[in-house]
Amino acid sequence: QVHLVESGGGSVQAGDSLRLSCAASGPTYFRACMGWFRQAPGKEREGIGIIYTIGGATQYADSVKGRFTISQDSTKNVLHLQMDSLVLDDTAMYSCAARPALAGGPPCAGMLAGRGDEYTTWGQGTQVTVSS
User: Fold this and answer.
1) What gap in Å lies between CA 109 and CA 78, rounded to an integer?
2) What digits encode the pLDDT tens for the residues 30-59?
C-alpha cells in the first residue's frame, strides 16, 4: 500500500520560491507515475507536473513550465516540487498523487491532464499562499 505525505507549504510573496516535498512509501510499482496537482478555491483540481519515477521523465503544465521543477531523491522515496517566480495565481492546495505505470506505450501517458481521477493514491495536501 502506498502512503504519501506532503510538506513544505506556506505563505510567500510574489516572486519568491518554495519547495514542496512528498514523502512516499510502499511498493515502487504502485507509484511509478507520480504527479503534483493543485486546487484553488472555486476551481477544479489541475495537474501541474508528473514524473515517471523509474525513468525520471517529467512533464509540466503550460502554466508552470519554466518556473516549477519536479525532482526525486536518490532513493525515489521523496518527490520534490521546486516552485520559482511564484505568482498570485499559484495560490492553491497542492497534493501529490501516485499510480502504477500504464502497460504498453508511454508509462504515464495522459496523467497530467484533467483532475487526476486515474491516480490511485493521494496525499493530504499542503497549502501554498502567494501574496503581493
Assistant:
1) 22
2) 999 999 999 999 999 999 999 999 999 999
